[in-house]
DNA sequence: GTTATCCTCAACCATATGGTTGAGGATAGA
DNA sequence: TCTATCCTCAACCATATGGTTGAGGATAAC
């Protein structure tokens, strides 16, 4: 979980995931639009890979990456616990109520 | 966005958010169950605060914290783009199709 | 075989993280 | 007033992050 959120905590890596959602890409293709060296981009790919968000297949000299979205569903499941709090009305009530008691939620993820 | 995901990328901070969902807590109360110094926990609170996830009110010598969940909704909105990919059937198809074409999704967040 | 391409690796550097301890400011309670 | 409590701050340390460059392995192309 730490690894997943950490992987998402960098714009370059989120961009990679976004582009991988449209289909497979090689490391070089992932690196191309980024203003950094290929080696740096390669490290970002490795971070995504170690978080389980990206899978790599080496075909010849190309390392082709594809999205492995399952860990994202875990992250969303975690966040979903707080959905009730996003509600604008509750958000506003937070200023008034002390302490807030969102009775809808009892257990934490 | 980086700050929000970074804030979520540590178990101690996620634990703080979870407990704050049940109501306001002081820094000391947030720190109590953690196996680290008060100063360390205080730093974690500051990370949550700078990500906009926690708001602090100083009343006397107590620093009382409350959940500020709005940034979590932004994070979830970002993740929601990938919802289609979590589907088990699509997940399985990923092994077969090359490249994957989840036609449901066109634009990225 | 030679060369160009794709990518990783290792070394290096600057800065950020995550923890500690010790000092101390501010407030509450006696 | 004196003391205990809550919390931040500063200094310090080890390690992780995020970037660079240079070298080189493996494969494709010629």
TrEMBL record, chains A, B:
- List, alphabetically, the InterPro entries matched: ArsR-like_HTH, HTH_ArsR_DNA-bd_dom, WH-like_DNA-bd_sf, WH_DNA-bd_sf
- Bilayer-crossing residues are none
Superkingdom: Bacteria
In terms of SMART domains, this protein maps to: HTH_ARSR
Entry's Gene Ontology molecular function annotations: DNA-binding transcription factor activity
Coiled-coil regions, chain positions:
none
Give all residue intervals belonging to the HTH arsR-type domain.
1-87
The record's annotation in Pfam families points to: HTH_20
- What NCBIfam families does the annotation carry? HTH_metalloreg
Which named protein is this? Transcriptional regulator
Q: Which organism is it from?
A: Planomonospora parontospora
């Amino acid at each position: 979980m730490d690894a997943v959120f950490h992987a998402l905590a960098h714009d370059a890596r989120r961009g990679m995931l976004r582009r991988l959602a449209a289909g497979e890409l090689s490391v070089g293709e992932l690196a191309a639009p980024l203003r950094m060296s290929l080696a740096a981009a390669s490290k970002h790919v490795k971070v995504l890979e170690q978080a389980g968000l990206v899978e790599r297949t080496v075909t010849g000299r190309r390392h082709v990456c594809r999205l492995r979205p399952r860990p994202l569903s875990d992250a969303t499941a975690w966040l979903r616990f707080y959905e009730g709090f996003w509600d604008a009305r509750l958000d506003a009530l937070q200023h008034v109520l002390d302490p807030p008691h969102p009775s809808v939620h009892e257990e934490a993820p």
